[in-house]
Design brief:
about 160 residues; alpha+beta; 3-stranded antiparallel sheet; flat
Length: about 160
């Protein structure tokens, strides 16, 4: 038995006004998508400009953050007194250089640094093969499958 989850439409269209309502709502949806893309591009450009301004004109603290304080606070969904170009550092070990170093120290070191792990994974093809071999019934196989239905809205 399959488990099915469905997402219901927000509001059913009334038959007498459905075509006009569909056209009006679709035009609004398409327009807002275009505007959202334009806004997203503008936000990205502003972010790049602000980061550049902070890098060249901000006050640097001990952590490497660069802060610009506004002359007048901005009052919106919250109050902003300025902005900061926050330095974030992520470090990763270069696997190729680590292997070279470990090999240079000998096979015992390399085995310690690069160990083999066994990972257990579900082999879905084997489930279907077992069903074909009558080890699993169709009902048993179906009971393992979760189905989720969602709906995409695409312009055509």
């Amino acid at each position: 038995m399959r488990r099915v989850t469905r997402t219901a439409p927000a509001e059913p269209a009334t038959p007498d006004h459905a075509p006009q309502r569909a056209e009006r709502l679709f035009r609004q949806w398409a327009t807002l998508r275009e505007q959202a893309a334009q806004i997203d591009n503008r936000v990205k450009a502003l972010r790049a400009d602000l980061l550049d301004l902070a890098a060249h004109h901000g006050d640097e603290d001990a952590k490497g953050h660069m802060t610009i304080t506004l002359d007048q606070p901005y009052e919106g969904d919250r109050t902003y007194s300025g902005f900061v170009r926050e330095k974030r550092v992520s470090m990763t070990v270069n696997e190729e250089r680590a292997r070279t170093l470990a090999r240079s120290k000998g096979p015992d070191v390399e085995k310690r640094v690069f160990r083999h792990e066994v990972i257990e994974v579900l082999d879905q093809d084997e489930l279907y093969a077992l069903q074909q071999e009558d080890v699993l019934t169709t009902d048993e196989l179906d009971s393992l499958i979760d189905t989720t239905i969602t709906y995409a809205l695409k312009g055509i």
